[in-house]
Write a structure and sequence with these properties.
The complex is a heterodimer of chains A (122) and B (307). With 122 residues, chain A is mainly alpha-helical. Chain A contains five helices and two strands, in the order αααββαα. Chain A has two domains: 9-72, Winged helix-like DNA-binding domain superfamily/Winged helix DNA-binding domain (Arc Repressor Mutant, subunit A); 79-113. Chain A is 54% helix and 7% strand. The longest helix of chain A is centred in the last third of the chain and has 20 residues, at 79-98. Chain B has helices at residues 41-48, 91-101, 107-116, 130-143, 160-177, 188-194, 212-218, 233-238, 258-266, 279-287, 299-302, and strands at 3-12, 15-25, 30-35, 56-61, 64-65, 76-78, 148-152, 180-184, 197-202, 205-211, 220-225, 239-245, 248-253, 271-275. Classes of the chains: A mainly alpha (122), B alpha/beta (307). Chain A: Keywords: DNA-binding, Transcription, Transcription regulation.
Chain lengths: 122, 307
């Protein structure tokens, strides 16, 4: 994962799963490891993993089927979330311009770090 | 059910080894206890378990104060790794003893763990490797089926594979049985991911009590080079310098506010990068004023630089 910021570990794990969904490691209908298995794999506190799963559930990435497990869900595009993200991007682009980052540098960055399919996260 | 330690103080040979220790230990919570050598970790455990009689203070299990006469073996498990009766006992003797003392002790669970790690049942304690002994302590703790387990330096002297095995057992017990752990360790990397909370013991007291996930959201670690080494006053005030490499300062902000962010930006540093904050960084932050740390380099932050 590229982002080195001091994220809470639950947030980092939720991002990682989202990233894996975007890059096709998980597809809709796949069963995620249980909280216990994921805690083992990531060597994380089970409470932290449970919190990441709750976050993913409320973000519409996964669904919990009682007695069956946790599954990757077909997440519909969220209009309000997209609006917020576009606003953040506009603000970022303005700041980037002020700091001297050129359009060409941004294009190069996108080309180098993102495959065409994988829009959001490297 | 919670375990509450209140204002616990223990003097040994007229020296206070632990002073006014208070904390509440919640069910299912993994708590790390860290402190430098001699901070009082083992003494705290021994006093909590009434192996030492406290000079003052109480320990309560579910609001019931415990004393030397209380049998709390159904609640809390602790093995003194430095001072126990095991020496050359065969495992069967150790198991018999735990079966007597811990009412819920499941010998079958113990033997199945031992078998899983291919430790012969006929072994004697003293003939086992450090890693095997650590496994046996964990197997005893888990087989006792108590809600609270104290582990004193469970990773000490273990190779990386054995450390991972111990961590795995802790995660399993927390996930499957909601077992609470209080773990003292110098292995901060091992504690980092698995702890909900960390108590930092310093000068015989609990100096900090951190919920790690909240702290990770609030705190930041920045690597920065300031122009002419001019550190903005707010950065000096709010930040703790944990490492200096040439011109590069590593600064931890426990509360990274917008004001701090603005001060950093306004200073137009030559170089600035945020790094992931680890438990090691948090611990360093609490130790920078120790006399053997940084060897006076913190002056860069605490005295105005001349340019």
């Amino acid at each position: 994962m590229q982002n080195p910021r001091s994220l809470a570990y639950y947030e980092r794990l939720a991002l990682k799963v989202k990233d894996q969904v975007l890059s096709g490691i998980w597809t809709v209908g796949d069963k995620l490891p249980s909280v216990r298995e994921m805690a083992q794999q990531e060597r994380l506190n089970p409470n932290t993993v449970a919190k990441a799963y709750r976050q993913l559930e409320s973000d519409g990435v996964i669904e919990v089927r009682p007695g069956k497990g946790t599954f990757i869900k077909n997440s519909p595009p969220s209009a309000p979330q997209q609006t917020v993200l576009w606003q953040q991007l506009s603000a970022w682009l303005i700041n980037a311009g002020t700091a001297g980052i050129t359009r060409q540098q941004i294009d190069d960055y996108l080309d180098t770090n993102f495959s065409p399919k994988e829009v959001v996260h490297p | 059910m919670t375990v509450s330690v209140s204002q616990l103080t223990k003097r040994i040979a007229n020296r206070e080894i632990i002073t006014d220790i208070s904390f509440t230990w919640h069910p299912g919570e993994i708590t790390g206890l860290v402190g430098r050598n001699g901070a009082g970790k083992t003494t705290l455990f021994r006093t909590m378990m009434m192996q030492y009689i406290p000079d003052s203070g109480t320990i309560q299990v579910d609001q019931q104060p415990i004393s030397q006469n209380t049998d709390f073996a159904q609640h809390i498990f602790f093995v003194d790794s430095q001072d126990n009766f095991f020496s050359s006992s065969p495992l069967t003797t150790i198991v018999d003893w735990y079966t007597l003392v811990y009412p819920a002790f499941a010998a079958a669970d113990f033997w199945s763990t031992i078998q899983h790690f291919a430790i012969p049942e006929s072994s004697r304690w003293s003939s086992l490797s450090k890693g095997q002994q650590a496994t046996i302590l964990m197997a005893l703790a888990l087989a006792s089926h108590v809600p609270y387990i104290i582990l004193d330096e469970p990773f000490a002297g273990l190779d990386v594979i054995a450390r991972e095995e111990v961590t795995k057992m802790i995660i399993d017990a927390a996930a499957d049985h909601h077992t609470a752990f209080l773990i003292s360790s110098h292995d901060l990397e091992e504690l980092d991911g698995i702890s909900d909370r960390v108590l930092i013991l310093k000068d015989h007291r609990i100096m900090h009590d951190y919920q790690l996930e909240s702290l990770r959201e609030e705190a930041r670690k920045i690597q920065v080079v300031f122009r002419h080494n001019q550190v903005p006053p707010l950065v000096k005030k709010e930040g703790t310098l944990i490492r200096v490499t040439g011109q590069v300062l590593e600064i931890v902000f426990m509360h990274y506010t917008e004001a701090v962010d603005a001060a950093l930006t306004a200073a137009q540093p030559v170089f600035s990068e945020e790094l992931p904050l680890t438990l090691t960084d948090i611990f360093r932050t609490t130790a920078v004023h120790d006399t053997d740390y940084l060897m006076g380099k913190e002056e860069i932050l605490h005295e105005p630089a001349q340019s």
